[in-house]
Amino acid sequence: MKAEQYDLITRSIHWLSAFAIIGLFALGLWMVELNYYSDWYRTAPHWHKSIGILVAILTIVRLVWKRFTTHPEIEGKRYEVVAAKAAHHTLYLLLFVLFVSGYMISTADGRSIDVFDWFAVPGAGEFFPNQADIAGQVHFYVACTVIGLASLHALAALKHHFINKDNTLRKMLGVKGK
Question: Which domains does the chain show, CATH number per domain?
Answer without folding.
Answer: 8-173 (1.20.950)
